[in-house]
Specification:
The chain is α+β, with helices and mostly antiparallel strands. The chain has two domains: about 180 residues, no CATH class; about 170 residues, no CATH class. It is built from 13 helices and twelve strands. The strands form two sheets. It has a six-stranded mixed β-barrel with strand order 4-5-10-7-9-8. Strands 2-3 form a two-stranded antiparallel sheet. A hairpin with a 2-residue loop joins strand 2 and strand 3. Helix 2 packs across helix 11, helix 2 packs antiparallel against helix 12 and helix 9 packs parallel to helix 12. It starts with a helix and ends with a helix.
């Protein structure tokens, strides 16, 4: 008997009991939909984390002051003014390093006309936008001359500009007061949104670090150094070279603790991605239990079907059907139930993912491999749980089957 004829008979047999067939499919539908939805949510969260890390600077190395011991007490970073502007200058010549920016910051009140706003003003260098992959929406970034001269120029974040001047207004060229000192606005950064920790990255302003040190904070040291390498492959080697240069400049001997901390975002990105991947696998595994339950339901119904159709099986065997024909017949019926249920489950899974993404604003990304795995698993479940009932049907004795009431 041809495969096409076997398939046709299988569909006709399943159509005799539409309600039972639909209920049997339900377990497979829910299982496949749950797997796809869970994987979509996990993949979306993972993609969001990776994008946020990328926006922070994929090849970023952060050098912070501190990390030393005093009287047996280990101090964390930021507890000692150990970094100088000259350190940042020296790191520009380190192999693998592409951009370097000294950083410092202070929190001040910005006043523009009758509007005011308390925010953090970051003192940075000309390379900072390249390190953070951040573009300027209005005006331009300040230049080397502004850094050398400690000019009173400032670049506003989008949230600060909108608060002081209104939505969609270009304040370039206007003057605002920073600690009662006039600063000229030379640019406004493009919106960057919230960070992975939920902080508004646009609620900030930028000025030359020399201006912050000399005219706002009065510090002689810098708060840190931001470094970007030419490629992600250079990060680890460049980090070690940066440490070596700073140890030499700070006259730190062998065996002595560093008086600075150099960290990369790669470790953070890898940790968060691994956590998300683990959670996705856990959720998909839990959803996979539904597939298992659906498979057991298929086997149960197929066993009932074999019992109900014993006389039919006996008649087929009596008129010349082979055992493998009967085996194939019931096996195809089990696979048809699985595949139809799997197909509906895929559509439902996509619908759930779209609904969560649209109405709950949760990132959802359905990878194609999840769809293939779900469909393949549905087919395997059909074959695995359908094989025993099919073999039982194929092993019936024709005489005993015809006598069955």
């Amino acid at each position: 008997m041809s495969v096409f004829m076997t398939l046709r008979i299988a569909i006709k047999a399943l159509g005799r009991n539409k309600m039972r067939t639909a209920l049997t499919m339900l377990g497979m539908i829910i299982g496949v939909a749950a797997v796809i939805a869970m994987v979509a949510l996990g993949s979306g969260a993972q993609a969001q984390i990776e994008e946020q890390i990328k926006q922070s600077g994929t090849n970023l190395i952060m050098v912070m002051p501190g990390n030393f011991s005093s009287g047996g007490v280990r101090m964390g970073f930021g507890n000692s003014p150990t970094l100088k502007p000259e350190d940042a200058t020296a790191l520009r010549d380190v192999p693998g390093v592409q951009y370097v920016s000294a950083t410092t910051q202070t929190r001040v009140q910005l006043v523009a006309g009758n509007q005011n706003w308390s925010t953090q003003v970051q003192g940075v260098d000309v390379d900072f936008p390249n390190i953070r992959l951040w573009t300027v929406k209005y005006g331009s970034w300040f230049g080397d001359q502004d850094v050398r001269a400690a000019s009173k120029v400032i670049v506003l974040g989008a949230s600060v500009a909108n608060t002081l001047y209104g939505e969609g207004v270009d304040p370039t060229g206007q003057v605002l007061r920073v600690k009662n000192q006039p600063f000229t606005i030379v640019g406004v950064m493009a919106p960057k949104g919230q960070s992975s920790m939920g902080q508004d990255q646009d609620d900030t302003a930028f000025a030359p670090y020399t201006t912050i040190m000399k005219k706002l904070s009065g510090n002689q040291s810098i708060g840190g150094i931001s470094i970007s390498t030419a490629s992600a492959d250079d990060v680890l080697d460049a980090t070690e070279r940066v440490k070596a240069v700073l140890r030499e400049r700070h006259k730190i001997g062998p065996g002595m603790d560093d008086d600075f901390t150099a960290r990369t975002l790669e470790d953070m990105a890898a940790t968060r991605t691994e956590m998300t991947r683990t959670m996705t696998s856990l959720l998909a595994s839990i959803a996979g239990v539904s597939l298992l339950v659906g498979g057991i339901g298929i086997m149960n119904i197929m066993l009932v079907s074999v019992t109900e159709r014993t006389r039919e099986i006996g008649l087929r065997l009596a008129i010349g059907a082979r055992g493998r024909d009967v085996l194939l017949q019931f096996l195809v019926e089990a696979v048809v139930i699985s595949m139809f249920g799997g197909g509906i489950g895929i559509a439902l899974g996509y619908g759930l993912s779209w609904g969560v993404k649209t109405f709950m604003e949760w990132p959802a990304l359905v990878p194609l491999n999840a769809v293939f795995v779900a469909v393949g698993f549905a087919a395997i479940v059909g074959v695995f749980f359908g094989f025993y009932p099919a073999r039982k049907a194929a092993g019936l004795d024709p005489i005993e089957a015809l006598r069955f009431e």
